[in-house]
Amino acid sequence: MKKIWLIFVLAGIYQITALAQDLIVTVDGDSLNCKITQMKGDYVYFTFRYQGEVRNTLLPVTQVKQYQYNYYAIPSVQPYQIVGYKPEFPNWRLAFNVGWSYRTPRIVDGLDPIIRDHIEKLKSGLNINLDASYFFTEMFGVGFKYDLYKASNSIQSLEGDITLNFLGPAFAMRSFDRATKTNSWFMNCAIGYMGYTEHLKVPGQSVMLKGSTAGFVMDIGYDIAFSKNWSAGIQLSILSGILTEMNRTSNGVTEKVKLEKDQFEGLHRFNISVGLRCNL
């Protein structure tokens, strides 16, 4: 909890620094909270707020007693209100997340209580996911996504573990905070390969089930910047896929098993995760 609060504090300090504005003191003794846009020839060009209205103006350098950049922590005008403002944005977003995942397909009725409890324990597990996105505009980009799910359980003489993998191309969208251009909402949509592997061990026998299908992923989250290139974020993900057949290996023998409609293996799950982002 202390680390989370530290991230928020650092993010707040960074935003205040990023919004800091300039001081101009005129020869008449007036102090102006403004943003100096350029010093050209014999004039100082700046943007400031006067009686609630944002104005872009200039002063002869002979009328300026002194000036200082980043003097005011609280700005009088926002960056997008300044003449000539051109938003700069990072093209690359690299993200690492870790968190909790839960599989949503229901468990069929009529199972032995021990088997049912075992399957229930395998429905939640560890999630790790990686994103690499390239934004060709401030809002839209493309990339690749990898998502890993791991769960294991042991009950009486029954042991088992499940691994789910997703890998595929993604379409990415993001929306920066209008004022700071640092924090941002984002969304990814990806379609690709989804793999399933399950190991089951009982006394005297070991069974492995493997299969793959097309999968779909959608992420939505929020990034909080704490430096120029680094952010911390929280993310909710929904993944979907259905296995209609799989390979079953037992005692060294592998056979393909086609599942009946009421036996299809649902790979649907959702993730709640936190992590780091590198913006370049």
Strand content: over 45%
Helix content: under 10%
Query: How many domain units?
Result: 2
CATH third-level topology of the largest domain: Porin
Question: Briefly, what is this?
Answer:
This protein has about 280 residues and is mostly beta strands. It has 2 helices and 17 strands.
Please explain how this structure is put together.
The chain is mainly beta and 280 residues long. It folds into two domains: 2-81, Roll (SH3 type barrels); 92-279, Porin, CATH 2.40.160. Helices cover 10% and strands 64% of the residues. The protein has helices at residues 2-19, 113-121; strands spanning 21-26, 31-40, 43-50, 53-60, 64-72, 92-103, 124-135, 140-155, 158-176, 184-202, 205-225, 230-240, 242-243, 245-250, 253-258, 265-266, 269-279. It has an eight-stranded antiparallel barrel with strand order 6-7-8-9-10-11-12-17. Strand 10 (184-202) and strand 11 (205-225) form a beta hairpin. The two termini are 28 Å apart. Residues 1-18 have low confidence and may be disordered.
